[in-house]
Each structure stands twice: as C-alpha cells, then as structure tokens.
Amino acid sequence: MAAIRRASVSWTGDLATGKGELTAGSSGAFSALPVTWASRTEQPDGRTSPEELLAAAHASCFSMAFSAGLAKAGTPPQSLNVEAEVAFEQLEGSWTVVSSKLTVRGRVPGLDAVRFAELAQAAKDGCPISRALAGNVALSVEAALE
C-alpha cells in the first residue's frame, strides 16, 4: 500500500508578480508558507521555493537512509548533521534543477572516515528522493566524521 502525502498551493497573479501560499495537507506541519517566483530566482526574503522544499526533502530522506545504513553496518550514529544544496539554473532558456549536493557531518563511534564516506555514498544512491532525481539531477555527497 502506498503512503500518500499531500500539499497544496493557493496562487494569485502571474508568474513574475504573483504569489502563493503553500500548505502541508497531510501532516498540517505548516500552512500558508509564502512562495513567489522571486523567492526562486532572487532573494528568499522570508519566502520559500520548490527548490528549498526539494532540499529539505533530500536532506531528511538522506538522513534517514544514512542512519539506517549505519545501524545495519553495526555502527549506529550518535548524530548526523545534513545539509542539501539544490542548484536552480537557467539552461538554454529554461529554468532547471541541475544538482543537489549533500553535506553530512556525523558522530559515529567505532567507524573510520573511509567507511563513513562509503556508507554515505550508498545512502545517497539509495534514498527514495535521490532515486527520484537520478538521471535528471547531478547528485553528490560530501561526508566527514566530527
């Protein structure tokens, strides 16, 4: 059975000057988050964007996959700090998400840096958000122990 999650946007106006409000329909975790075209291509100014939400999705998905992989390897993490940086660029006249770079710092007792990086790579390749982006977006991970 599929897990279904929902979000909705109420938008007014055209692309350049319009604005929207984003609401998490499934969880209710957020509502009325402001979103605009300018928040995508200029400064956020307190507004979110689809790319920021994609970065949040990728960072949280990777965190879960990496935590599971570390535990399966017999070295559960004490802590992981993950950042995802999604690049949105204009290519040949069309705006495109071109990359998602994950950076992870972790405390994992009993694990060396080489194995930490190997397991980070496996988690990057295996997390569902990475799999959804694979083939369309350049994916990378930089991993270091604290």
CATH top level of the largest domain is: Alpha Beta
Adjacency order of strands in the biggest sheet: 1-2-3
Distance between the termini: 39 Å
The tally of domains stands at: 2
Helix % is 25-40%
Radius of gyration, Cα only, in angstroms? 17 Å
CATH hierarchy: architecture of the largest domain: 2-Layer Sandwich
Q: Name the shape in a single word.
A: elongated
Total DSSP helices: 4
User: Average pLDDT value?
Assistant: 97
What is the fourth-level CATH superfamily of the largest domain? K homology (KH) domain
Largest sheet: 3 strands, antiparallel
What does the secondary structure layout of this molecule look like, with pairings?
Elements: E1 7-12, E2 19-24, E3 33-35, H1 37-41, H2 50-72, E4 79-91, E5 94-107, H3 113-126, H4 128-133, E6 138-145
Parallel strand pairs: 5-6
Antiparallel strand pairs: 1-2, 2-3, 4-5
Helix pairs in contact: 2-3
Describe the structure.
With 146 residues, the protein is an alpha+beta fold. The protein folds into two domains: 7-41, no CATH class; 50-145, GMP Synthetase, Chain A, domain 3. Helices cover 33% and strands 34% of the residues. The protein contains four helices and six strands; from the N terminus they run E-E-E-H-H-E-E-H-H-E. The chain has helices at 37-41, 50-72, 113-126, 128-133; strands at residues 7-12, 19-24, 33-35, 79-91, 94-107, 138-145. It has a three-stranded antiparallel sheet. The chain is elongated. It starts with 6 loop residues before the first strand and ends with a strand. The mean pLDDT is 97.
